[in-house]
Amino acid sequence: MRIDLPHELEVIVERLRATGQFASDAEIFRAALVDLERRAIAWADKHAALKQAIDQGLEGPAEPWDMDDIRREVAERLAGRAAAE
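The chain above was modelled as a monomer; its predicted structure follows.
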């Protein structure tokens, strides 16, 4: 397989190879692709969990909001942050 890279990416590959961590360009691409796949799987897992949470929320009964409770909770959180600083 032959890969043509823009100059900016060639510089990154050269810099990585120069660290001595990778013996060849192939090792760099392998590590990058393994990392890309890991991130894609993690993103898909998060996306599925979020979709499930949304679906659960849409199925459940809606509860009215109490603005006084919301204001009180916000004030408590802000007071907690100010105390932590």
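The first helix runs from residue 7 to 18.
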